């Protein structure tokens, strides 16, 4: 089953705000230890509206740091980083973040966990519960609204975290290895669910993974990082998908071009793990 993805061409009916670039990183460097350690080294990219971009690279290459910079949880040491044309000054409701560790409140049931962010935003009880139910249904948890996290599986807890983030309607969805702690079967179910949700809500997404299969399945575009210090090794539009997204993983795996893409990314990963510095394309 495949679905035609919305392209970025139809910009006529977008608000002026939407016409600006979701995220623009200009010569971003992030150092720690007073400059003694460079985690991210002079990277530049622009993200496109409604695109799913996946940061890929070996452990420690700066994927999480870059995502945290976009989230406004950290600031670049050098360079300019903007969201919808504005310099990032901290976290904001325009960006929703999903982490690998399930971030639900243990004493709240699923419904209240999803409604929590809306409560903070001042949404009245009846309205926020209606919204929370809508998003619980979207993550296929409509029958579990009274469950507390202790009685849920890892996959269910992560669905609650996803529903809570989406219920706040961020324009940008930032996910850091969101399915990394889940077993293989739950992971692909969650990946397929994410495609369904992103298609429905037309989100601009940045997701981080070191799982090549997950990257090819989810991404419209892959930004591949070099091993420390993190630079952009390659910036790849997954053109072989023909602008489509696939609801079922096996359909994508059988699609012409999949095997070549997988082999290319494995070779790049191997290069980075073994420390070679071969620049492919992009800057
Ligand atoms: N707050 C910090 N202080 C010092 N070093 C850090 C900090 N955060 C990340 N780093 C280092 O920056 C590098 C990139 O980290 P990270 O972005 O988490 O890697 P990954 O690509 O695996 O997500 C790592 O070497 C990490 O140890
Ligand atoms: Mg990480």
Task: Give a description of the structure.
Helix content is 35%, strand content 23%. With 283 residues, the protein is an alpha/beta fold. It has a domain at 15-89 and 204-243 and 255-283: 3-Layer(aba) Sandwich (Rossmann fold), CATH 3.40.50. A hairpin with a 2-residue loop joins strand 5 (78-83) and strand 6 (86-87). Helix 4 (125-138) packs across helix 5. The model is unreliable at 6-18 (pLDDT under 50). Bound molecules: adenosine-5'-diphosphate and magnesium ion.
List keywords for this structure.
binds magnesium ion; alpha/beta; binds adenosine-5'-diphosphate; 283 residues; Rossmann fold; 35% helix; 6-stranded mixed beta sheet
Care to give the gist of this entry?
The chain is of the alpha/beta class.
Largest β-sheet summary = 6 strands, mixed
Terminal residue distance: 35 Å
List the strand order in the largest sheet. 7-8-9-4-10-11
Average of pLDDT:
90
Stated plainly, the CATH topology of one domain is called: Rossmann fold
Query: What general outline do the C-alpha atoms trace?
Result: globular
> Under the CATH scheme, which class of one domain?
Alpha Beta
Indicate the structural class.
Answer: alpha/beta
Small molecules held by this entry: adenosine-5'-diphosphate, magnesium ion
What gyration radius follows from the Cα positions, in whole Å? 19 Å
Catalogue the unreliable spans: 6-18
Helix content class: 25-40%
**Which CATH architecture of one domain is right?**
3-Layer(aba) Sandwich
State the helix count. 9
What is the string of helix and strand elements? EHEEEHEEEHHHEHEHEEEHH
Share of β-strand residues: 15-25%
Q: Going by CATH, what is the homologous superfamily of one domain?
A: P-loop containing nucleotide triphosphate hydrolases
Count of DSSP strands:
12
């Amino acid at each position: 089953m495949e679905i035609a993805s919305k392209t970025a061409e139809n910009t006529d009916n977008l608000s002026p705000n939407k016409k600006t670039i979701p995220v623009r990183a200009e010569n971003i460097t992030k150092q720690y230890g007073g400059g003694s350690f460079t985690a991210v080294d002079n990277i530049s990219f622009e993200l496109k509206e409604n695109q799913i971009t996946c940061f890929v690279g070996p452990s420690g290459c700066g994927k999480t740091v870059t995502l945290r910079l976009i989230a406004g949880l950290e600031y670049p040491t050098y360079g300019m980083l903007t969201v919808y044309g504005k310099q990032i000054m901290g976290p904001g409701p325009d960006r929703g973040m999903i982490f690998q560790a399930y971030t639900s409140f243990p004493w709240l049931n699923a419904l209240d966990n999803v409604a929590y962010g809306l409560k903070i935003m001042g949404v009245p009880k009846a309205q926020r519960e209606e919204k929370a139910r809508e998003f619980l249904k979207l993550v296929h948890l409509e029958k579990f609204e009274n469950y507390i996290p202790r009685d849920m599986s890892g996959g269910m807890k992560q669905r609650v975290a996803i529903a809570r983030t989406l219920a706040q309607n961020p324009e940008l969805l930032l996910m850091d290895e969101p399915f990394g702690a889940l077993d293989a079967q739950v992971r692909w179910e969650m990946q397929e669910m994410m495609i369904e949700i992103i298609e429905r809500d037309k989100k601009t997404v940045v997701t981080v993974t070191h799982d090549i299969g997950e990257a090819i399945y989810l991404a419209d575009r892959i930004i591949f990082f070099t091993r420390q210090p993190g630079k952009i090794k390659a910036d790849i539009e997954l053109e072989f998908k023909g602008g489509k997204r696939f609801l079922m993983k096996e359909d994508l795996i059988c699609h012409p071009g999949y095997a070549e893409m997988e082999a290319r990314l494995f070779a790049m990963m191997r290069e980075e793990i073994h420390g070679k510095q071969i620049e492919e394309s992009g800057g």
